[in-house]
Amino acid sequence: MVPTVMDLLNIQKNLHHHYRSLGGWTFAFGDYYTERVTIDLDSPVMKLMQAVIDPITYSNRYTMPKMIVTTSGDEFFLPDDSYYYFDQLPGPKFLRIVPNAEHSMKGHLMSDILALHSFYLTILENATFPTMSWTRSSTSINGKIMLTTSVEPIKVTMYYAKTLDGIRRDFRLVVKDPNSQNPMVHPVVWLNGEVQKINATQYMAVVDRPIVGWAAFFIQVHFNGPKGSTLEFTTEVNIVPDTFPFPDCSGTSCVGSLV
């Protein structure tokens, strides 16, 4: 199973996290905002609906191999949505964050096809997937990801980015123009950074806490796959500092505004 650019599991908690990050709702939620979904976020009706439509409700059924594909600059969903669901999913499970891509994944079609090919080929060939585990941590100085793999990767890369200001914890590539109803480019660019190799199957990435705003980073790993293919997975992002710029909403105050 490969859900792509839709990882809003644990809907209510994730939407509250969305509000605390952006101080409102992404402009991409426009249709839902018009239907007044946000004002009902904490209502009993929303909880009843979530019990039916939230994918996390059915997590005990997800016993097949899973690769959850997201993008670093998605205008719908946030790069740290996984904090609210990934640990609740059974294995085998993998993440694949596509750097410097927005919701449509325009310009990344070939890399997506190759990643899908190797993932499904591993299943069809009854080959063994490598395993990955990691920890995220942060201090007043920096953030760290410690990665452990079951086999030695063929390539390990770190990607990192910083928000453009200290107003929002916002890594979207497209945002709402504050002077109009139109979207505008929001150039949060993800760059390559250094990964420290501890041994053949352990790696560490460290990013300093920025003076203003937030920094996010993740480790991307490539493994040999069947028939000359390459498996590509990532860790979750780590965002430093581990703070939110806005207080949470509750009840009807969650109506918010589009940003």
How would you concisely characterize the structure shown here?
The chain is of the alpha+beta class and 259 residues long. It has helices at 11-22, 30-34, 44-53, 109-124; strands spanning 66-71, 93-98, 132-138, 142-149, 155-162, 174-176, 183-185, 191-193, 196-199, 202-208, 215-224, 230-234, 238-240. A hairpin with a 6-residue loop joins strand 6 and strand 7.
Would you kindly provide a written description of the structure presented here, covering whatever features stand out?
The model has no long low-confidence stretch (mean pLDDT 97). Helices cover 17% and strands 28% of the residues. It has one domain (11-245). It has 259 residues and is of the alpha+beta class. The strands form 4 sheets. Strands 5, 8, 11, 12 and 13 form a 5-stranded antiparallel β-sheet that branches. It has a 4-stranded antiparallel β-sheet with strand order 3-4-10-9, with no helix packed on it. Strands 1-2 form a two-stranded parallel sheet.
Succession of helices and strands: HHHEEHEEEEEEEEEEE
Cα-atom radius of gyration: 19 Å
Distance between the termini: 32 Å
Helix content, binned percent: 10-25%
Unreliable stretches (pLDDT < 50, length at least 5) are none
Report the structural category. alpha+beta
Number of helices: 4
Name the overall outline. globular
- In total, the number of domains comes to 1
The fraction of residues assigned to DSSP E strands is 25-35%
- Biggest sheet record: 5 strands, antiparallel
User: What integer is the average pLDDT?
Assistant: 97
- Overall number of strands: 13
